[in-house]
Known about the structure:
The chain has about 210 residues and is an alpha+beta fold. The chain is built from four helices and ten strands; from the N terminus they run E-H-E-E-E-E-H-E-H-E-E-H-E-E. Strands 2-3-4-5-1-6 form a six-stranded antiparallel sheet, with helices on one face. It has a two-stranded antiparallel sheet with strand order 7-8. A hairpin with a 4-residue loop joins strand 4 and strand 5. The longest helix is centred in the last third of the chain and has 17 residues, at about 140-155.
Amino acid sequence: MSNLYWYSHSLKNYLTFSNQKIISKGFILVEESCSTPFFKQFLFQKDNQQILVYLYASDVQEEMYLFVQECDVKEVFIQNLKSKAFQSFHSDIFIKEKEPLKIIEEIEKAMNYSEEDEYLHIYGQPSWHGDAFIVGNRAALQLLRDTIDQALQFGEKKEVFFPEDEEGYSLYIACTDDSFDLSQLDLPYHDPDIFEKRKPPIQAFKHYKFHD
């Protein structure tokens, strides 16, 4: 399961966590459980669609995180979220486990940030036979490698990188199987004097929902 996560201001005490309510306009809370003093699970429903949400207070990171399941109603859920404490940080992790303590282990592993800024520049092919370039520092290339490994495991993965000007962007990676017809996608060339504006390859992704 892929999750967008947001995080609040630094966690000062668990009282902040225990009193935290998750409310999104138009969504009905179907189930809420608190398995540990620092981990809550919520199941919401809108019409016939359900969405899973985790709230986790990390003593290690001293942050409180909100994880929202990637699905058709994710964007609506986030837009209608009543709590303003959470600031958007568009990264995500795949959570495979069901047991809360195992989920926490996966979260903490994913939150083990590099102390070095991850700068990555990607230069695509302008036209046929044109060269492509990937330029990044060691931390960024290691993160790119790990992101590719996860795409190989889960089929696709999104990660946030930064160019030198600090204007972050999301990199989406899809690992297609042999039956996938690549001809349904626009070719990747981007020279505006030769090609019309290229459409994003949304057909290659199942977990991530793209909106025009």
